[in-house]
Amino acid sequence: MEAVARRLRGRFGNWVTRRIPPARSVTLDQRRIFILPSRAGLFFGLLVILILLTAINYQNNMSYALAFLLATLFVVGVLHSYANLSGLRLHGVAASTVFPGQQSEFVLRLERGRRQQHYALRLAWPDSGDAVVNLVDRDTAELRLYLPVGGRGWYHPGRLLLESTYPLGLLRCWTWVDLDLRALVYPRPLSSGELPGVAGDRPEGAAIPVVGSDDFYGFREYRPGDSLRQVHWKGLAKGQGLQSKHYVGYADRSLWLDWELFSGLPTEQRLSHLCYWALAFERAQEDYGLRLPGLTLAPPAVSTSWTGC
Amino acid sequence: MKIATAARIVPRNALVWIIISQFALLAPHLGRLPLWVVLVYLFAAGWRIMVYQGRWSFPGRWVKLGLIAAGFAAIWLSYGNLLGLEPTVALLLTAFALKLLELIRRKDAYVLIFLGYFICVTGFLFTQHLLLVLYSMLDILLLTTALVALHQPGEHRFRLATVRLPAVMLAQALPLMLVLFFLFPRLGPLWTVPVKSHAARTGVSDFMQPGDISSLSQSDEVAFRVQFDGDIPPRSELYWRGLVFSVLENGAWRSLKYADIPAREWRARRQEPVGEPLRYSVLMMPTQQNWLYSLRYAQSAQRSVMASADFRLYSPVEIEDQLLYRATSWPRTPLELELSAWRRRTELALPAAGNPATLALARQLRAASDSDADYVTAVLDHFNREPFVYTLQPPLLGEDPMDQFLFRTRRGFCEHYAFAFTLMMRAAGVPARVVAGYQGGEINPVNGTVIVHQFDAHAWAEVWLPGEGWRRVDPTAAVAPERIELGLEQALAGEGSFLADSPLSPLRYRGINWINMARLRYDALTYRWQSWVVGFDSQQQYQLLEDVFGDIRPRVFIAVLFASALVVLLPVAWLLLGRRQRHSLDPATKLYLAFCVRLAARGIVRAAGEAPADFARRAALEQPALAPWLRQFTHEFNQLAYADREQDEARRQQLLARLRSLLRQPPPA
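^ inputs. structure came back:
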């Protein structure tokens, strides 16, 4: 039974994905909007049947008329419910980076279509709280939803539910959109007592491998040939395109956080320790460098990308 | 308790609309309800408003249970039971008011609003009068407004404008509703339902004591309306027979009970019709009684209308709702040329004692007459000669009422004269009976109907004469002929008692022309409404469908239903959804498309997906003469469309104007 349900859900998920592919901005139209009677709508149906039975049993023409008026109101309601969602544009704006166990803030923007008023738009991810907005007398509305994230890495919140029962509450009009938003989750900081190898005072100037690239100067567009180490990964993650970090200046005394410092430990634990120390250095406002397999960030590598591995 | 989320609470705007619609729904029931129900409404609304202002809190569970129990008890005390239609409606209305005290979440509001729609229906069960139906439309609008307001979160102030959308939606729903109304098959009742209590019986009753009909004559309610197929007979011929009183018992006349009649006398004997038939339809208001009204010797082809042995029409079921029936009368037909022994005995029976002076006078007059017919004339002469007065305010009569009336008071209404006359006939051995019904009616010049009011109620007599059968005799005509010729108002002109108890009745102002005309027009509208809309039944439906579509088959029926649904809904859909498509291009894009059309006319067609800049470059190569114009237009368009989305409105307008002027002045090719 459960297996069947799961398969059906999987099928439905695939179908929705084909129908509403992930995108940063989605305009709602007839391909994307679904309408079914709400629970109140079902009760409304019962009410109409009750009125119809009364009309039949009492041979009462005005009760017939009322039953038909309400039934037709329901049908007209389908169009109005649809119009309430139709034309809306949904933008995924940003998602905040967080540590595991925290809640990531997802910023969304709603933009109205030609219609003047959109009422009672409820937005929620399956795991998040919900937000209800009216888009009345304004063109856009920005809203924030908070989601508990999983472990280290990219957190995908899945499909966002946008629903409304406006205007009559008898019909639920909804859509599932994938705004292609993801939140970066840092490793969980894990204290490791002393940082091995940092206890001693090591003048690090000579140890810096890339001469003339220790002082952060700015970003420029990525050009073929730029070192992968210079790529601004975080910006890429935010969708700002491929950029290289540009360094000038000279070597300075600084600290190095090295993957090899914690050799022998599992990957996640190593990352957690590195994260802990990175945070510690940040707090102390120390410059530090980071050496990971395949990635070296020279000091001052403030707020580093942790996803490379 | 689950915390109500923003979407689940009731906005204050909705709360106000709900309270307004509650009171609006209560109004049409006021006349039927005990006063305390109104107090419950005020109490519940008052409490809820205090909660809304944060001064009081919602009642606890025990308080609520107590209120419900008190409601049931109060209805039991007011009505004596809980099962009839009136107590059920009172119960619904009380629950409707009390539910306000637990209106917290949206779920509760749904219950309230849905209950409200149903309360509209209960109003229709009592009357489907045009004014009530129009008023109920307002109720439905208010309820729907509350429903819409419920789904506008954050509206924390009462807003009148909320009513606009539901008004539009109801207007859009109306055409399809009409289609369904006329096409939906009318079925017979599926099971028996609680009926209205019989307290509200109106009209002539099956029991007549002196004073009964004069009290009815104070009412200006319409009893029934008649539409004749041909000309309307003179009003002195309009004797609407409803009841025949054959039994005098305990000082009152009553009709024969079912058990009084031997089985062989049950069936109405067919008489040979004589003279021209009168064809007419009667639209009767509900009476909660069985009998129908018709002119003398009426027949009806309708199965719901039956004929009785004393030549009346009646309905086997009590008339709970208005009833439309067709009848044909042959007024000149002699009725019952041969009287059966049982019938003769019944129509001659008199109580053993009472009214000795009247009986003596009867025997004396009969002795002085040559025949029964002469005797009838003699008695009428007696009424005419002696100083009898026709009045709506007869004195009360005690023991031996007819003796008192004939020899002492001599003031009476129609039932006094009919009573005395029939008594005197029977005393002299002439079979006679009292007939009750209505006499006359008002002719509405607007649509040619005869409006019969309650004050047209009348009682007269029928005597059986050998060789003639039953003859109608109206002793009132001997005293006050103007009652028969002109109607009650004229007959009572000197007394000033016509509708004395209803100073606001429009019928009192018949002298003022425009009021009278307005009243008659409204009555014509009511007739049309009652006969066409309220009285629309399977027979009329069949007729209508046959007239419009010819042959009716289920497939045609369903096709018509769907086609009309489409025809009705498509404009709504277009209105809601289509218009947006047309406007979705912004003005700059529209201008650019116009620009492309101009170029296409010169043989340069923009490829699908070709960027404006690319297109301009290609076009400039093809027609170098156009190059500056092309470049400028494309540049300005790009400025407007892409360069700076946030530019201020004035600059946008300026750019648009430039684009427009450029478009108007292309260089010659």
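The radius of gyration of chain A is 28 Å. Helices of chain A lie at 2-19, 39-58, 61-85, 233-237, 267-284.
thumbs up if we can close this ticket
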